[in-house]
Amino acid sequence: MVKDQVAAMLQSVTEREDWQEHGATAEDFSQRLGVRRNTISAYLNDLYKEKVAIKLNSRPVKFWDRATLEQRYGIVLENTEFESQAALENIVSQPKRTAFDEVIGGHGSLYTPIERLKAAAGYPGTGLPVLITGPTGAGKTYLAQVYYQYCVDKGYLAPESRFVHLNCAEYADNPELLASNLFGYKKGAFTGANQDSTGLFDEADGGMLFLDEIHRLDAKGQEKLFNYLDNGMITPLGATKEGHHVQVRLVFATTEDIQSHFLDTFIRRIPIQIEIPELNDRPRQERENLVKLFYLR
Questions:
Q1: How far apart are the C-alpha atoms of 198 and 207, rounded to whole Å?
Q2: pLDDT, tens digit, 9 for 90 and up, residues 138-163
Q3: DSSP category for residue 237
Q4: How far out from the chain centre does Cα 21 lie?
Q5: Angle at the Cα of 205 (from 186 to 140), degrees rounded to 5?
Q6: Within 13 Å and on the Cβ side, how many CA atoms surround 50?
Q7: What DSSP string runs through 37-59?
Q8: Is 108 in contact with 288 (CB distance < 8 Å)?
Q9: What mean pLDDT, rounded, does the chain reach?
Q10: Which of 99, 139, 232, 289 is a Cys-bridge partner for 149, taking CB atoms 3.0 to 4.6 Å apart?
Q11: Rounded CA gap, 195 and 80, in Å?
Q12: Are 10 and 51 in contact (CB under 8 A)?
């Protein structure tokens, strides 16, 4: 179908490095396809109305493929019609804002922690595991959620990926139950295990798992975690066969001293360790901005 050919050529033109200098015109496509100019013009305008193409009201009128430009520059073109090429180029040249840009203190007291989180996010594969320390109420959970959204913004995680949160303190007195929640279990693994069950690692596969109050995890639990960090595999409780691979970005948080509560073998496997200051230790302007934000919400 001619319209499909026009759409494919439009995408090809937009994929060029010098796309700004070219753009699709009805006359050009007419000559290349051997189809009447009016017909090509109608198809290009159809693609514009369908929001597949963006339109520049120049002489001659130019079109580009919207999705190609959005993917290249990491933006969403809400406007699909422009009166000047300068206006279009101004939009695509603006850096895309990420979730971290909305964090109060992102360029102040939280600048270094956020830069380290960005480094962890960009590491090949599933990124680097992160340990966030700080007192209760400092914003560790909030920062973990923003970190997840940043990974989505940058394309490190798919938009449909999950952010799974577990507070280990809820299972501090029952390490077996905690392990079964994390890694799943097989039928008969313990009393009451009447069927196979998946764990939070499986739920977070392709996304991020945030384990709060990680200091409540006993030595065996920490060993299970660093086994995953070593080989990317988890083994459900009661499994008799080798485990299975999952791809999970891990974020841990604690209010406690790292050296006193964790195995050295576990801590060595977490290269990104960041500390969040107490709210009272943050600059006055940041605290005022937080009060305003909480009030507005």
A1: 16
A2: 999 999 999 999 999 888 999 999 99
A3: B
A4: 33
A5: 110
A6: 12
A7: HHHHHHHHHHHHHTTSEEEE-SS
A8: no
A9: 89
A10: 99
A11: 53
A12: no
Residue located via tokens 């017909």: 39
Of the candidates 143, 222, 219, 148, the residue with the CA atom closest to the CA atom of residue 182: 222
Q: At residue 181, what are phi and psi to the nearest 5 degrees?
A: -70, -35
Give me the residue label for tokens 């959204």. Answer: 149
Inter-residue contact 205 to 247 (CB < 8 Å): yes
Kindly list the distances between the CA atom of residue 33 and the CA atoms of 26, 36, 37, 152, 197, in Å, as whole numbers in the listed order: 10, 9, 10, 40, 58
Contact 215, 261 (CB under 8 A): yes
The length of the chain is: 297
Residue closest to 251 by CA, chosen among 141, 155, 174: 141
For residue 60, give the amino acid letter: P
Tokens of 170: 């809820």
Phi, psi of 106 (to 5 degrees): -65, -25
- Give dist(CA 251, CA 171) in Å, integer: 18
